[in-house]
Automatic annotation (TrEMBL):
Role noted for this protein: Involved in cytoskeletal rearrangements required for phagocytosis of apoptotic cells and cell motility. Acts in association with DOCK1 and CRK. Was initially proposed to be required in complex with DOCK1 to activate Rac Rho small GTPases. May enhance the guanine nucleotide exchange factor (GEF) activity of DOCK1.
Gene Ontology process terms (BP): actin filament organization; apoptotic process; cell motility; phagocytosis
Species: Culter alburnus
Protein name: Engulfment and cell motility protein 3
One Pfam family named in its UniProt record: ELMO_ARM
Amino acid sequence: MPQQKDIVKIAIQMPGAYPQLIQLDQKKPLTAVIKEVCDKWNLPGPDNYALQYADGIQTYITESNRLDIKNGSILRLTKAPGRCAEDLYKGIQSSDSGVRCDSLKLLATVSTDITFAQEFISRDGHSLLVKIVEDAHEAPLIMTHTLTAFMELMDHGIVSWENLSSVFTKKIASFVNAKVLDTSIQQVSLAILESMVLSSSSLFNEVKQEVTLERLLSHLQVTNQQLQTKAMALLMAMLQAGREKDRQELFEFLEKRNLRQYIHKNIIHSSSSVGDEMAHYLYVLQTVRLNHLEPRMRTPLDSYSQEQRDMLHGLRQAAFETESESGLSNERRRSLCAKEFKKLGFSNNSNPGQDLSRCPPGLLALDTMAYFASRYPDAYSRFVLENSSREDKHECPFARSSIQLTLILCEILRIGEPPSETGSDYHPIFFAQDRLLEELFCICIQLLNKTWKEMRATQEDFDKVMQVVREQITRTLSSKPTSLELFKNKVNALNYSEILKLRQTERLHQEETLSPPVLELKERLKPELLELIRQQRLNRLCHGTLFRKISSRRRQDKLWYCRLSPNHKVLHYGDVEEETEMPSIEALQEKIPVADIKSVVTGKDCPHMKENKGKQTKEVLDLAFSITYDVEEYSLNFIASSRTDFCLWTDGLNVLLGKEMSSESMRSELEILLSMEIKLRLLDLENVPIPDTAPPIPKPPSNFNFCYDFSQAEQ
């Protein structure tokens, strides 16, 4: 008695007969099952029949795949693969062209099944197809069916591609090279040549000799997308197969013939959409071309290379109008160079080559900077001079930013990564521009400077700015711009405030998808976390901050310090010297009781901004705040050194006055804290012991020789 798990309930069909509903015993031989089915329909010769799936891919059922049959499957009783192979073998040799055509058409369909393919090849049927191709006497439709059937049979790997004769290869190549021929024949011929190229290096060389590359490129100019795709598939196969030397020669030929422009004009620009297969080949070509930059990306600057040293000093000379260095002493020349390299934004100004020792981006960063300086000299000089002349700690370091931006672009474009077998993420802009990386860099380095100013960033905000710039680039590229100008317009429109809006929208969308219990937990956590932020703001006010006074001539001169008393009742302030770190409360001569503070005003509403109405920059307006006290006739006026200090102080003062905090820093910090806290609360801590006390601090190491000495880098 068979066990229940060995029984599968299925239906079996046959044209002209009622279906049979049977319980298939998987332990019973398939021949016995087929005999029982034939007996119920009174069919003689059960050996001439087989079972096949009726729906989807109509695969023959064999002893090796019968366990894949599921309950409810519908099978069909059909000709056994051996009998079918024999009939088709005879049919394709018929003197009647109609019979040959029908037989070859059916052969192209059933050859996808490996069981049938084995039977047909065992009768040497594939050799018969090869002869039909070599003779080339058949009509286009019959030839198309012949080539399709041959391709399906060869895909099973039963017969080696290397067994094919050179006559066959030349004939297939002639189909591809022909200027006037049925496109269906050319499509299948291109697919056959692609498989031959990928199968062995000897066939690669044979195909390379027979196929006219000019004709392949012409196939990319046709309107038939399937023909374009097959031609691109063969080109990509030839770029990935064969010896390195052969691949390089082919790559250089395609570069000279400007394959990129062929693709942009005839495939991307002229098509509303690109198929999945073509998208994969475009991705492969993009990867292959970009990976030619990998050696530069993996190579650090060589301080002994005169060419590289000249490129480095060329950046300095292009930015600054320096006097002739020939009459200067070595010490004076080194001092001048170090000063200018520092203005350029190099961290190691005495030896800027050290900044380019990290790989990636290696020498690629030097290449992109040099390209920007030579291709857009005005924009380059404006960037460097604008930032090197600033004295308010808001300067954007060109060299440091360029090195990091080049690394970001390498990561986004995946330079150095081999093409994936399933990848399809290509950038249309890549095919619109010859030197994509360099041109993207030129746009993005100016975008970086713009974003830096929008964020009012200081050196401490460097990583934060780079994260925003990465987001600006990736979001813009994801919209698939087809030209550099379109990319430039889109990425510049995506300013910092737009990024914040998008982040907020995405956060709200994420919140909408949260389950009600998580939303409830989030609301319960908010008061506790807001109190934590309030205490941090008050602690910062108690620590105090150094502020600058800006005179009517807008020169930064005197310094003053302001801090809150530990009991949160009095604001102490007073003038201090340049190098004062944190003066004591007793050293600050002036004070304002918190109880006397009436309000906090910001921006153009501040008294000191009203006095100089129309004279202050937007940057200063955004950093200005004042507190009014007594009977609103007096005010204490501030100009924060950074947006961070502005947010901390305005939040802290609002907390003192019992008002809500409203800065963007508070919203960002609250979101981060909420996200972290919710993740911690939702952790699966079952059977995880949580200690009652903090773990002991480990003993210090025996020496600190592993520490990096930053003082050396700053010299």
